[in-house]
Design a protein that fits this description.
The protein has 26 helices and no strands. The protein is mostly helical and 730 residues long.
């Protein structure tokens, strides 16, 4: 949508400027301004977008005026450019509006340099900017409007589609042969991760996209139920289908393979397999075609049958593992019903079975608003604030790029500065800047080759060149989340078309583009390594500590509520854990990149992230179960879980203290299992398939995950095993 909105704004600007008879130079300046004015604004509320766009126009006019006036004064112009770069990065500390205004100021200054503005042409250039901002406003607020409610509605539809894709993968898993199993499980894991990503995107838009906090809390609950229940069904299918004891499908351990030689417990009974295949198809239909869920008694009968698997007496005769699959199927059907009630409102209840009626009553009992709690952010001041540090780094890097760029070209030195600026965007460590710079250079080199070929094919066909520019801009936005190298390719190919339109295209210009890009990337890396550097291991340690804190918060609060404690916003805490884990995963990309020479370190990083993924899944499941305690008829509080929760919380604190290099002699406890702890207190093992057994399984997996984290991090474990240090702390 961002790409579509940007392309539409550029196209409208081109039409308006062409109708006014504007020359090619100002037309290109207007198109680039419309692009900047559209993509720079990231705020969610329409009113905030309008205010930022209105403030962005005077910032853009000031930037282009100062660029034009200082163009002939080399020293003053360069000094102002460096100050502008510093201010643009420093403004990020003021949120989305500060980031947008800083980006507009820098990019419009760059546009002025690109088109070679002059004092005589300044009035016309300013008028062009005004028209470009006006076209951007028309597209943003009228042609391709963006409102929180509209975005949330699209995300909800996307979540349903991802849910249907995941159920389809589970159907494939049921019938996959041994030679197909690895590929099917890989698809299953990828689609599980995509479903989780969609859930996180919805979480990010709930507050602005819903009418009140009650609706937001209800939708959050139903999305979490559907996500967790469907992922659990995949795990149960995998356990029965391949005889592999899986923990989670979100992200598996490095180099893990699916066992294919064990007994296929599902295929052992053809009748049970046929029943399961029929019910999975029915579930897929309910998810993929929600509008048909109330048409006739046949669909109601299917829904009633699936929900009936929540009752033990309705389960088919089969092994325990296969019965677990049918239990999971019933829980997914319940989650799908709850999701539909939350999204589409009440439906016809005339054909409900007792199992369906009970599920609806459970939803009514759970429909309570949760009080949101916000934690104070860490107060960082001075040079420790990330925006200040990044501003200093990019300013020093830009000075180096400016000096070096002048030696390469006195006219296009700003390409090096632009690259130095870009490699610092959305990066927080030296390793991230190194990888981003490398990808920028690779994408630029390939883009230059494409630019040479396209320029020769297009020739003087102006509108074909403009059409390709629009296509490349859309591709640039579309591929940005997927591959930075691919995005850089489209940026460079687009610039080749712009040079063709300005009649300044030549092979020397594109080669110079590669040289300036490489120089800017190197200058950015040098600045990141010398000026207030943030080493990758330090960054990952900070984020690892944050993830452990969030994990401890979720588990402790969930166990407290499971023991009968006061209700709290557990799902909100679980999403905070997911967000922190996403940040950690992004920070470890330099360590896990294929070009890294530290193979052992790469394996350790992947292993740690995989264990945390597993623990996060089970923590989310605990949170979802614990939130049912205050109002559910089927989930009762059990104070005996407190001891198990205390051990897990203590182990997490020990690992977190070690990660932060805090002085401590404590060891991670890895003694008896969670079930054994409860047996010591005289408790019986809960029956398989019960909520209590599920809670114990989740607690056990979190406990095992934390102990698994301790060993590669070099944390002492008190089970008599010598601590292992595999290099994660080097």
């Amino acid at each position: 949508m961002a790409g579509l909105r940007t392309v539409a704004a550029i196209a409208l600007t081109l039409v308006v400027l062409t109708a006014l008879g504007t020359d090619m130079t100002h037309t290109i300046a207007g198109a680039m301004t419309a692009m900047v004015a559209t993509f720079a604004i990231k705020e969610k509320q329409v009113r905030d977008q309008a205010v930022t766009l209105a403030l962005g126009l005077p910032v853009a006019l000031a930037a282009v005026a100062l660029s034009t006036l200082l163009n002939s004064r080399i020293v003053a112009g360069d000094a102002f450019f460096i100050l502008l770069i510093f201010g643009a990065v420093y403004c990020r500390r003021f949120g989305d509006r500060g980031t947008a205004l800083g980006l507009i100021g820098f990019q419009i200054y760059f546009v002025s340099l690109f088109v070679g503005s002059s004092v005589d042409g300044l009035p016309m250039l300013c008028l062009t900017l005004v028209l470009a901002f006006a076209c951007s406003a028309v597209v943003r607020f009228a042609v391709v409007p963006e409102t929180p409610q509209r975005i949330l509605r699209r995300l909800r539809d996307a979540f349903r589609a991802r849910l249907a894709q995941l159920v389809a993968s589970q159907l494939e898993l049921l019938d996959a042969g041994p030679e197909e199993l690895d590929g099917v499980v890989a698809d299953l894991r990828e689609r599980t991760a995509r479903l989780h990503e969609a859930a996180l995107m919805i979480q990010d838009r709930l507050e602005e996209g819903t009418r009140d906090t009650a609706t937001a809390a209800l939708l959050e609950r139903r999305i979490a139920d559907a996500e967790i229940a469907t992922e659990r069904l995949g795990v149960l299918l995998l356990n029965a289908r391949s005889a592999e004891r899986a923990n989670t499908l979100t992200l598996h351990l490095p180099d893990a393979t699916v066992a294919t030689s064990g007994p296929n417990l599902i295929a052992a009974d053809d009748k049970v397999t046929a029943t399961l295949r029929r019910d999975l198809n029915a579930l897929h239909h309910l998810v993929a075609h929600p509008t048909s869920a109330d048409r006739g008694t046949a669909v109601a009968h299917v829904r009633n049958r699936l929900l009936g698997y929540r009752d033990e007496e309705r389960l088919p005769r089969a092994s325990t593992a296969v019965q677990d699959v049918f239990r999971g199927l019933g829980e997914v059907a319940r989650a799908v019903l709850g999701l539909r009630l939350a999204l589409d409102g009440p439906q016809d209840e005339s054909n409900d079975s007792p199992a369906t009626t009970r599920s609806r009553e459970e939803f009514d009992a759970e429909d309570v608003a949760l009080a949101a709690e916000e934690e104070p952010e860490e107060d960082r001041t001075g040079l420790q604030r990330p925006t200040t540090r990044a501003a200093c780094q990019v300013a020093v890097g830009s000075v180096l790029a400016m000096v070096g760029g002048e030696f390469l070209s006195t006219q296009r030195w700003y390409w090096a500065v632009l690259t130095c600026w870009v490699v610092f965007l959305n990066t927080a460590s030296t390793g991230e800047i190194l990888v981003k710079g490398y990808r920028r250079v690779v994408g630029t080199v390939v883009g230059v080759v494409a630019g040479v070929a396209l320029a020769g094919l297009v020739g003087d066909r102006t509108w074909i060149a403009f059409a390709l520019v629009l296509l490349f801009i859309f591709a640039m936005f579309f591929t940005a989340p997927l591959s930075y190298a691919l995005m850089s390719f489209f940026v460079t190919a687009m610039l080749g078309m712009l040079y063709t339109l300005l009649h300044t295209y030549s092979l020397d210009v594109l080669v110079l583009r590669i040289e300036e890009t490489a120089l800017g990337a190197v200058c950015g890396i040098i600045a990141a390594m010398v000026v207030l550097p943030v080493r990758t291991d330090r960054r990952t340690d900070e984020l690892l500590g944050t993830v452990l804190d969030r994990l401890g918060d979720v588990v402790s609060a969930a166990v407290e509520q499971l023991c009968g404690g006061p209700a709290s916003d557990l799902l909100g805490r679980a999403r905070d854990l997911d967000t922190a884990l996403d940040d950690l995963r992004a920070s470890t990309k330099p360590l896990t990149h294929p070009i890294t020479p530290l193979r052992g370190r790469r394996r350790t990083a992947r292993y740690l992230v995989a264990l945390l993924e597993t623990s996060a899944f089970h923590a989310r499941s605990l949170a979802a179960t614990a939130e049912l305690v205050p109002d559910s008829r089927n989930v009762a509080a059990d104070p005996r879980l407190g001891r198990a929760g205390q051990r897990i919380a203590r182990n997490i604190e020990v690992v977190a203290a070690h990660v932060r290099d805090e002085p401590t002699d404590a060891k991670v406890g890895a003694g008896a299992s969670i079930a054994a702890i409860l047996k010591e207190e005289g408790s019986r093992t809960p029956p398989t398939g019960s909520v209590a057994s599920r809670v114990l399984r989740h607690l056990q997996r979190v406990d095992e995950g934390v102990v698994g984290l301790a060993r590669p991090l070099g944390v002492p474990v008190d089970d008599g095993t010598e601590p292992q240090t595999t290099g994660a702390r080097d």
